[in-house]
């Protein structure tokens, strides 16, 4: 039995109190669902700027009424210290996911990205410190590697940030380490590498490439590739991210406090390969998609050419072992979006407060 399987059994028999910020977002909602399935008590915070009430509705439908009763939702913004202090009271573990993602978004509005990502992060650190939480696990990003040329990416070797977004994530890592040293706050960073999966928003100017392409292919619209398509990424299915967060929250304190961990698969997929996989997966149900072609545009500012993670630190210290390759995750993800399209899920969902307590 893996360390993660052992952990899940232990949590089910000994429930804890967890706070998930960004709970209505893509990754946050998956963490909430996983914890509720393990009989945990979960407090969620979100302001619905990028998150969606539909995501939480899906979670409650998935786990059922009994498990959903263990979820308390607070609508609010981490830019409010009072909100952060309230949310952290009585919490054992914090999984801090709330942020404004996207390199292009940060280039368009660096001030807003800083206020949410850095100021909000510091608010959460202060609140977690004062509440005496057992562990503060936070979302960082592979973007902090910046212009460092080495592959695979090793946690202790980073370069200069290439975007305001990357700078905010680097600042969050450094603030977290300061709080570990100065206040003894047990912090652990998760450097995510291109996470994807169900519930990821396919719409809007800052949508990630996988949901955007899936949405375009299902609507018969053009998919664009920035560059020659040989740009590569270490795409990581969201189930792997859930595992990493829960392991980081409960690992031996002395072994992980103040450290950051790559959260990825340790493998690369080019954008050309990604497009081909998605076209193949979706055309099995929608044959007309098989003839879709991508349009190539110039490279985008702030993007790195290649990204590949060394996940040996996470394997050694957390017991992390990816359960899904990129291809396996893409199969699951394409199937989910196809089912959503077939069921018309985007149009009609029940009201959120039918299945959970909402603090106003």
Number of strands: 14
CA distance, first residue to last residue: 42 Å
- Major sheet attributes: 8 strands, parallel
Question: What sequence of helices (H) and strands (E) makes up the elements?
Answer: HEHEHHEHEHHEHEEHEEEHHEEHEHHE
Name the structural class.
alpha/beta
Radius of gyration: 19 Å
Total discrete domains? 1
CATH class: Alpha Beta
Low-confidence stretches: 346-360
Which descriptor suits the 3D outline?
globular
According to CATH, what is the topology?
Rossmann fold
Q: pLDDT average, as an integer?
A: 92
* Proper CATH architecture: 3-Layer(aba) Sandwich
Q: Kindly state the percentage of residues in helix.
A: 40-55%
Taken as a percent bin, the fraction of beta residues is: 15-25%
Structure notes:
Helix 2 (26-37) packs across helix 10 (238-250) and helix 5 (81-88) packs parallel to helix 7. Helix 8 (164-183) links the parallel strand 5 (135-141) and strand 6. It contains 14 helices and 14 strands. Strands 11-6-5-4-1-2-3-14 form an eight-stranded parallel beta sheet, sandwiched between helices. It starts with a helix and ends with a strand. The radius of gyration is 19 Å and the shape is globular. It has a single domain, classed as Rossmann fold, CATH 3.40.50. With 360 residues, the chain is α/β, with parallel strands linked by helices.
Question: Layout of SSEs?
Answer:
Elements: H1 3-13, E1 17-21, H2 26-37, E2 41-46, H3 53-63, H4 65-68, E3 71-75, H5 81-88, E4 93-96, H6 103-108, H7 110-131, E5 135-141, H8 164-183, E6 187-192, E7 195-196, H9 209-219, E8 223-226, E9 232-233, E10 236-237, H10 238-250, H11 253-256, E11 259-263, E12 269-270, H12 271-283, E13 294-297, H13 312-318, H14 326-343, E14 357-359
Parallel strand pairs: 1-2, 1-4, 2-3, 3-14, 4-5, 5-6, 6-11, 7-10, 8-13
Antiparallel strand pairs: 9-12
Helix pairs in contact: 2-3, 2-10, 5-7, 7-8, 9-12, 12-14
């Amino acid at each position: 039995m893996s360390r993660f399987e052992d952990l899940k059994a232990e949590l089910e028999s000994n429930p804890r109190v967890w706070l998930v910020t960004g709970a209505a977002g893509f990754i946050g909602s998956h963490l909430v669902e996983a914890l509720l399935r393990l009989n945990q008590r979960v407090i969620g915070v979100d302001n619905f700027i990028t998150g969606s009430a539909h995501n939480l509705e899906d979670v409650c439908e998935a786990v059922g009424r009994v498990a959903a009763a263990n979820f308390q939702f607070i609508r609010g913004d981490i830019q409010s210290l009072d909100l952060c202090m309230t949310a952290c009271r009585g919490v054992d573990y914090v999984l801090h996911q709330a942020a404004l993602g996207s390199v292009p978004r940060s280039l368009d509005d660096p001030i807003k990205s800083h206020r949410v990502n850095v100021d909000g992060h510091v608010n959460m650190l202060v609140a977690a410190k004062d509440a005496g939480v057992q562990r503060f696990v936070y979302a960082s990003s592979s973007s902090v590697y910046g212009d460092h040329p080495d592959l695979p990416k090793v946690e202790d070797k980073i370069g200069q940030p290439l975007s305001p977004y990357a700078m905010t994530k680097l600042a969050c890592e450094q603030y977290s380490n300061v709080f570990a040293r100065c206040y003894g706050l047990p912090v652990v960073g998760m450097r995510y590498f291109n996470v994807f999966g169900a519930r990821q928003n396919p719409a809007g100017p800052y949508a990630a490439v996988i949901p955007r392409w899936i949405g375009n292919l299902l609507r018969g619209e053009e998919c664009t590739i920035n560059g020659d398509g040989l740009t590569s990424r270490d795409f990581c299915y969201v189930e792997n991210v859930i595992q990493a967060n829960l392991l980081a929250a409960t690992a031996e304190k002395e072994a992980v406090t103040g450290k950051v961990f790559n959260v990825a698969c340790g493998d690369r997929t080019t954008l050309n390969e990604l497009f081909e996989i998605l076209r193949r997966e979706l055309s099995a149900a929608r044959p007309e998609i098989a003839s879709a072609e991508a349009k190539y545009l110039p490279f985008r500012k702030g993007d790195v050419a290649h990204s590949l993670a060394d996940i040996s630190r996470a394997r050694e210290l957390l017991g992390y072992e990816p359960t899904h390759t990129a291809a396996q995750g893409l199969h699951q993800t394409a199937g989910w979006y196809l089912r959503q399209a077939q069921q018309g899920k985007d149009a009609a969902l029940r009201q959120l407060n039918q299945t959970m307590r909402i603090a106003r």
